[in-house]
Specification:
Oligomer: single chain
Shape: elongated
CATH architecture of the largest domain: Beta Barrel
CATH class of the largest domain: Mainly Beta
Number of domains: 2
Strand content: 35-45%
Largest sheet: 9 strands, antiparallel
Number of helices: 6
Helix content: 10-25%
Distance between the termini: 53 Å
Length: 266
C-alpha cells in the first residue's frame, strides 16, 4: 500500500510540474536523475538523517561503469548490477565479501542491505548525491572533493598491506616496522624496509614507476617476520612497477603482476 501511494503521489507531482513548470525546470529534473552523471564516480557519506550507520560508516558508493555499483557502509563491500532508471536505485543479488567486523560495525552490512532493499530514490546535484530510503536519507559527496588523491611525489607513504598471489596480508609486525617510501619530483627515492633504510632512483611514467637498484643499509633483522617483510618490500620495489592512487592510499604492483604493497599517506 505504501509503495502504491508513493507511485500515485509521484504521478500527481509530475502532472503539476507539467502544467505549471517550464522547459528549464524539466531539464534540471532530468539532469538530477541522469544515470550518466554518476558513471565513473565514487561518493562518500557526509550526513545521515534517520537511522544512523552502525559504527558511523562512512557509506561509500561507487559507480565504476554504467549499470554497475559497489558499496560499503564500513564493513563488507558489495558489488553487482544496478538499475538507476526513473530516479530509483534498484539492486539485486549483490556479491559481498565475508569479513567479520567487530561491534558496532558488525551491523553496518544489515544497515546497507535495508537501505538498498528499500529501492531508495536518488538525485545528484554537482558533487552531491542524495539517497532517500524508507528510514534514512543520506547525503554523499564526490570522493575527489572529500578525500582528493594524494600526490605520488613529496608524500611519505607507509606500507600497511602486503599483496601476494594468494592473499592481502596485514600483521602486527608490518604495522610496527612500518616500511616507508618517498618519491621526489626528480625521481630519487628513499625509505625504509621496516628494518633497513634505502635510497635509489625511479623513472616516473603514467601509472608506472621503474625502480633502479636500491642501496640499503646492512643492519641484521633479528625478527624473522620483519626480515620477510624486508624481502617482500625489496622484491616489489624492483624494475618496472605499476601504481594506483586512491585518495590517501596507493598500491604498487610488482613486475610479476601479482605481488605488491599497499600504502597509506602519512
Amino acid at each position: 500500500m505504501t509503495r502504491a501511494f508513493g507511485v500515485l503521489a509521484a504521478l500527481a507531482l509530475t502532472v503539476v510540474a507539467t502544467a505549471c513548470g517550464n522547459d528549464e525546470g524539466a531539464d534540471a529534473t532530468t539532469s538530477a536523475t541522469d544515470p550518466a552523471a554518476l558513471t565513473g564516480r565514487t561518493f562518500v557519506s557526509t550526513e545521515v538523517t534517520g537511522t544512523p550507520i552502525p559504527g558511523d560508516g562512512p557509506l561509500v558508493v561507487e559507480f565504476p561503469e554504467a549499470g554497475r555499483i559497489a558499496a560499503t557502509a564500513g564493513c563488507n563491500r558489495a558489488v553487482g548490477d544496478v538499475d538507476l532508471a526513473d530516479g530509483v536505485l534498484r539492486t539485486d543479488r549483490l556479491a559481498s565479501t565475508m569479513m567479520a567486523c567487530p561491534p558496532p560495525r558488525d551491523g553496518a552490512d544489515a544497515w546497507l542491505g535495508a537501505l538498498f532493499d528499500s529501492d531508495p530514490r536518488w538525485t545528484v546535484s554537482g558533487d552531491v548525491l542524495t539517497l532517500t530510503g524508507n528510514a534514512v536519507t543520506v547525503s554523499l559527496t564526490d570522493r575527489r572533493v572529500v578525500d582528493p588523491d594524494r600526490s605520488l611525489t613529496g608524500t611519505e607513504w607507509v606500507a600497511t598491506t602486503m599483496y601476494t598471489p594468494d592473499a592481502a596480508v596485514t600483521s602486527v609486525a608490518l604495522e610496527t616496522s612500518a616500511p616507508t617510501l618517498t618519491v621526489a619530483e626528480d625521481g630519487s627515492v628513499s625509505g625504509s624496509t621496516g628494518c633497513n633504510r634505502f635510497t635509489g632512483a625511479a623513472r616516473i611514467g603514467d601509472g608506472t614507476l621503474a625502480f633502479g637498484p636500491l642501496g640499503t643499509t646492512r643492519m641484521a633483522c633479528p625478527d624473522p617476520e620483519v626480515a620477510a617483510i624486508e624481502n617482500h618490500v625489496l622484491a616489489v620495489l624492483a624494475g618496472e612497477t605499476t601504481y594506483e592512487i586512491d585518495g590517501a592510499t596507493m598500491r604498487i604492483t610488482a613486475p610479476n603482476g601479482a605481488d605488491g604493497l599497499g600504502f597509506t599517506a602519512r
